[in-house]
Specification:
The protein has 2 domains: about 15-230, Hypothetical protein, domain 2 (Endonuclease III, domain 1), CATH 1.10.340.30; about 245-375, Nucleoside Triphosphate Pyrophosphohydrolase (Alpha-Beta Complex), CATH 3.90.79.10. The longest helix is centred in the N-terminal third of the chain and has 17 residues, at about 105-120. It has helices spanning about 15-30, 45-60, 65-75, 80-85, 90-95, 105-120, 125-130, 140-150, 160-165, 175-190, 195-205, 225-230, 350-360, 365-375, and strands at about 245-255, 260-265, 275-280, 300, 305-310, 315-325, 335. The chain contains 14 helices and 7 strands. The relative contact order is 0.11. By secondary structure, it is of the alpha+beta class. The chain is globular. Helix content is about 40%, strand content about 10%.
Length: about 375
């Protein structure tokens, strides 16, 4: 059997898991800007719940380290859900640039507007109601309900999956093991400080029960852990077999007029990088991409390719560059004045393309170099190529 017959909600030893991890959490919790701690059975304030929701959406498929600066930028610019709802989708997606999975940004905006219009700016307090909101799935709904409203919900993210798989010595490989792990996690869910308990398990997985090199000697649950007792802590949880990701190819065009304006286009709302600003280009296909330049010009290919990994495929982009006359009329995209454009507002893939274009030593004319000199006083992050 994947889970030994002896494995139940009762772990080795006579300790209660929630009591152990809460005692550890009270001493060792991470200091995170969205964290709500120690309110016992009391619900968080409206603005605290806004911050919990914002963080949970950002943390989907993204590390804490990557999220923190974006979270701080968002709550500085939009400190309440009403201010976020009043912003345009374009503003939200642009501020999100670089965090990836851009459907989250569009759903964030849609959710904020629904909460303001339908719930007077207050999130509903049950998992079933939260699940009706855009961008909120089962994990996020459980996390908001537990942390924000002290609902007795089972919150299972990747960190909690790993903790449970090791504690109960679950040898079934992923993703098949998820149903077993969620069942086991439910047996430990507590009505006593459910929000702190959920965050404690996540912290335990992130800081001690790590994917690699788990810090078992200092783990508060060591004497309760089936994997530790069997010497399997480095093998569990059993990973799924990695499939081979296909490689797609594409062409992308970095063009600048002699007056310094950049040729950019906005991607369709649906699909990868949806709604974001970037360089015009071809579809991303398996095989040779077929595409015409977005306007007439002396386009040259930059040596090498830009490589980028998405969840389900790898992407190789060939970059073409040109300096364009001021009179050119593009058939795709539009020109953006240099003072209105900042590379920091591009997705990471498009920033890679810009950097690759800069590696071409001879694509700028003398006029273009003059434009660069005139932009020298701008921050280094603006895209003077």
């Amino acid at each position: 059997m994947s889970v030994p017959e002896s494995s139940t909600s009762t772990l080795p030893g006579k300790k209660n898991l929630s009591e152990v991890v809460l005692a550890w959490y009270d001493q060792s919790a991470r200091d995170l800007p969205w964290r709500v701690r120690g309110q016992g059975t009391g619900r968080a304030s409206t603005n605290e719940i806004y911050r919990i929701w914002l963080a949970e959406i950002m943390l989907q498929q993204t590390t804490v380290k990557a999220v923190i600066p974006y979270f701080e930028k968002f709550v500085t610019r939009w400190p309440t859900i009403r201010k976020l709802a009043a912003a345009s989708e374009f503003e939200i997606v642009t501020a999100w640039a670089g965090l990836g999975y851009y459907a989250r940004a569009r759903n964030l905006h849609a959710c904020a507007r629904i909460v303001v219009d339908r719930y007077d700016g207050r999130f509903p307090d049950t998992r079933s109601e939260l699940l009706q909101l855009p961008g909120i799935g089962h994990y996020t709904a459980a996390a908001i309900a537990a942390i924000g409203f002290q609902r007795c919900e089972t919150v299972v993210d990747g960190n909690v999956e790993r903790v449970m798989a090791r504690l109960h010595k679950v040898t079934e490989p992923f993703p098949q093991a998820r149903r077993t792990i969620r069942r086991l996690a439910r047996t430990h869910t507590t009505a006593h400080r459910p929000g702190d308990y959920a965050q404690a398990l996540m912290d335990l997985g992130a800081t001690i029960c790590r994917p690699r090199k788990p810090a078992c000697p200092v783990c508060p649950c060591q004497d309760m852990c089936g994997a530790w007792a069997s010497g399997l802590q480095h093998e569990l949880p059993m990973p799924k077999r990695a499939g081979r990701r296909p490689t797609r190819e594409g062409l992308v065009y970095v063009g600048r007029r002699r007056d310094g304006a950049w040729l950019l286009e906005r991607r369709p709302r649906k699909g990868l990088l949806g709604g974001t600003l970037g360089w015009p280009g071809s579809e991303w296909v398996i095989g040779d991409p077929q595409h015409s330049p977005p306007c007439e010009g002396r386009w040259r290919t930059v040596e090498g390719v830009v490589r980028h990994d998405f969840t389900h495929f790898r992407l190789h982009l060939v970059v073409l560059v040109a300096e364009l006359p001021n009179s050119v009329r593009p058939n795709a995209g539009r020109f953006v004045a240099p003072e209105a454009f900042d590379c920091r507002e591009l997705p990471s893939l498009m920033r890679k393309v810009a950097e690759h274009a800069r590696s071409d030593p001879c694509w700028l004319t003398t006029a273009g170099r003059s434009a660069d000199r005139s932009e020298a006083a701008k921050p280094a992050s603006t895209c003077g190529a």
